[in-house]
Amino acid sequence: MHSSDDNQYSLPILQLFMLRIVFSAQYDCMLPGYKGAMLRGALGDALRTFFPCTFDKIFKPAMNRPSPGQYSGVISPPAPYVLSVLDTRQKVARNQNLIFSLTLIGQTPETLQNILHALKLMAQRGLGEKRVPFLLQSVLLQKTSNNSDDLIELYHSEKKAFLDPIPFTDFRYGSLKDKKIIIQVQTPLRIKVNKQLRDHINFHELIWASLNRHYLLCYYYHQPQEFDIRHHPLLKLSKDINIIEHNLYWVDLVRKSTTQELKMKIGGIVGYFTCEGSFGPFSQLLHTAEIEHLGGKTTFGNGKIKIIDQNR
What domains does the chain contain, in order, with CATH numbers? Predict the structure, then answer.
C-alpha cells in the first residue's frame, strides 16, 4: 500500500502492463551477454512484419501533440515500453529458459494482445546471429507493481490461448523509511548533465532524471498538461540527501544495428551508491523510476535501478 505522503509529493499514475516472459531454447545456442538490443530488435522485427500499426505505435510513436514548453528540442516522444533482462549467459542449452521483462506504459489491452502474438512469432523466428528458434513458454502479468511474485498467467504453451480480458498492473508502493537506502544501478545508466554523459551521479541528479522521464511519459501517454519540474519540491529536498558510499563505474557496450549496419555505443554507469537522509517524500518517485528505468537507451534495458531500504 502506498504511504500518506503529502499531496505535494504525489505524482500522476500511468497505466502499466508489467510482463515476465519465458522463452525456452529449442537447440543449444550462443547469445550475446547483454541481450537487451537483441530482444528489442527481434520484437521490433516481428511487429513490423505482422503488426505494422502496433510497430509504429510502440517503436515509432508519433508527435501527436506539441512538445511541452521547456522541452522545445524534443523531436519524438519517449518510447512507451521498457525491456529488462539481467541474464548475461552466452551459452544457452536446449530446453533452458531465457527470462526477461517487458513493461508497456500507457497502452491499451488491444495493443498488448498484438504484442503477445508478436512475442510468440519472435520466439519462433529465432534469436541471435544464427536465428536459433525458441518456444514462448509463458507470459506472466505482475498484478501489483511492488510485488514481483504476485503474478497472473496470461499464456502458457500447453494452453495455447492468451488470457482475455487482461487486467492492468495495479500501481502500489511502500513508504521508504528514514536514515539509509542503497540505490543499485543494475544495467548501464546513461544520464547527461549539460549535454554531457556522466560517469557518476548524485542523488539530486537521479531525482531530476526521474522527474524528467516520468512527466514526459505522462505528457504523451496520460494527460497532456504543461509541467515544469524545475520547481518541483522533491528537487529541493533532494539536495539534503547525503551520499555516504559511492561505487559506480563505467562499462562500455556496443550494439551493432542489423538494419543500418552501424555500431552504436550503449554503455553507461553501473554499481551502487548508499544514501542517508529522509526518504519518505521520495517513495513514489523512486518506485516509479524502478519501473520506468532512467536515462538513455531504456528500450534496450538500460537504466534499471533497484532501491534497497536498509531500515526494514
Answer: 16-156 (3.30.70.1890), 174-309 (3.30.70.1900)
Is 47:125 a contact under the CB 8 Å cutoff? no
Query: Cα-flanking dihedrals φ and ψ of residue 301, to 5°?
Result: 100, 0
Q: Phi then psi for 220, rounded to 5 degrees?
A: -90, -25
Burial 3-20 (b: 16+ CB within 10 A, else e): eebeeebebeebebbbbb
**What is residue 258's DSSP assignment?**
T
In single-letter form, the type of residue at position 105 comes to I
Cell numbers for 203, please give them: 542523488
Mean pLDDT of 162-180: 91
Give the span between the Cα atoms of 32 and 30, in whole angstroms.
7
Retrieve residue 20's grid coordinates.
515476465
Partnered with residue 273 across adjacent β-strands are: 183, 246
Per-residue confidence band for 1, with pLDDT thresholds at 50, 70 and 90: very low
Q: What grid cell was written down for 5? A: 505522503
Half-sphere exposure of 155 toward its Cβ, with a 13 Å CA cutoff? 22
pLDDT score for 71:
66
Q: What is the pLDDT of residues 29-70, one digit of tens each?
A: 999 999 999 999 999 999 999 999 999 999 999 887 777 766
**Cell numbers standing for residue 308:** 534497497
Q: Could you give the residue ranges of the DSSP H alpha helices within 126-269?
A: 203-221, 233-238
